């Protein structure tokens, strides 16, 4: 029926066409299109039913009686559970009825991608027939359909010596016998109990060993940090990073608004824009721009810190800052163009190198991944020029050892950012989907939610010490506690992404129990920072970093509500079994990515901008615009998540339970009156959020136009080495 090379070619067609940024496979991907695993399974079952209707009764399926249909359904349900794969010969044998199911799947996707109108949000003829790397000759739509059929097969066929399928009975499809495994309910209950016990243990341990950060000032006479000291050439040059950040942020938001509109109509207010910028291209840009601008914020802020740590400007540091900046622009522009060419079918040979690799969050081609890693490597080198000399001062008279430890922790977390991104290189176009998704979640979860969070926790601690809010000794003790919690829960907590991808069932208990506590560390530290800022405010002091702490406080709320509450809601196995890939998933993703990492990035951007710009740039009017921006971003995000996406996900979840997962993931689901109301109702919240971005862009432009002059010599004279100050 088809060979392994044709199956791999079908996977490569899926990747090259960017369908993971339109629909999902095994529930992972994007959410306008269908889940191709569940859809192919439903279509194949229909083909098998029709085969037996003709073979046994000589009539069409619809003309059979309920009893006859029930008999066929029972026979098919038993037939699809039997595993006919021979590992010795690497051969899968299909029954005649399964062959009929395969033919039905091929015919269905020809109607979807060739014969009929293109799926909503995709360009006309979205599947290119070109043959190139990892693809073989033949009809590419047939090969794609065979890949989808294989996904349906692994989801409904029992593992050897097991009564559950390779995907732990996912997706929910009663016609194939796919129902929620008992272990999902059992471990959901246990995970709730462990969450309560774990939170209690964390609170007790923190209180018992006094792991709070301590105030570093006298409440009666607080010592305010001075943001108006001279700056160096490299510090001044970081200003353009922050302008680039806001431009990328704005472009990302525009892509997101286009994506939201595609759920309502096939085009943009009647314009067939999907033939120029289809949903899958806009989705890949939306994700990559978020990663790029958030990473750029961290690169720029950390580069600003190097002379602060060293107490002077390293030689030719400004040139390195320029090289890194233009390298980032080259990677951003080049990778976005490559993704467009690949998904539009205009790229052929080397599509996975220069175009799009086809995996959500890892869309940029392998060449761009290498260049992005190289740019981050250059950033680490820039940091080493200041961090290493500061670390070597440990143990010398007059040096605060705790501050040196804090510097060391920050450097290690910075090195881990490019280090863990190396996992992206393990995935090739012919990688097995379970293997590929295993490593992909290292990027989406362990890199973004783990390593990013480690860097954020440590950098917040560094800021608290630098801004004279906390003592370095208490901050170090608190950070050790936070990081043990973070990595102790987060590394194993990645398992909630492995429930249904064909991996071992052991991930159900591990993922359920460990993922819930990941949110605790950041909430604890940010709350302490806000508490200390309130001490300044209540004492009447004019704290110069109000904008930074407004966004840090917002981040703390969203970390608890968005990353924590919505994350635990969808990660519980008994809920995730039905919810996986519905609108609750992007609700959690937006609340966590925008509410936590975007707001944190804005906070550190404002911190660095305040230090490299003139005092007069920070008038009451400027501070007022920052407050308005912060409120607009928070209100817009809250409306998007809780007024639109969460209710939409609720009715989609109900549809999945009532009619099967495939039905809830049909594009036609969004055509119902209630879904339309919720989708149109998202528009005002999106516009409020966009207004917040525009206001913040105006602030950044104003501040960047008022940068301090570079005064390397004066900076060295006026700044003490960071680790000499307490």
Describe the protein's topology.
Elements: H1 4-16, E1 24-25, E2 28-29, H2 36-57, H3 66-81, E3 85-86, E4 91-92, H4 96-115, H5 140-156, H6 182-208, H7 233-237, H8 239-262, H9 279-310, H10 317-343, H11 351-354, H12 366-392, H13 401-421, H14 433-466, H15 472-493, H16 507-514, H17 520-538, H18 546-571, H19 573-579, H20 584-612, H21 620-659, H22 661-664, H23 673-680, H24 683-704, H25 712-718
Antiparallel strand pairs: 1-2, 3-4
Helix pairs in contact: 1-5, 2-3, 2-4, 2-5, 4-5, 6-16, 6-19, 8-9, 8-24, 9-10, 9-12, 9-20, 10-12, 12-13, 13-14, 13-15, 14-15, 14-17, 15-16, 15-17, 17-18, 18-20, 18-21, 20-21, 21-23, 21-24
Domain Cytochrome oxidase subunit I profile: 198-726
InterPro entries: Cyt_c_oxase-like_su1_dom, Cyt_c_oxase-like_su1_sf, Cyt_C_Oxase_1, NorB_cytochrome_c-like
Keywords: Electron transport, Membrane, Oxidoreductase, Respiratory chain, Transmembrane, Transmembrane helix, Transport
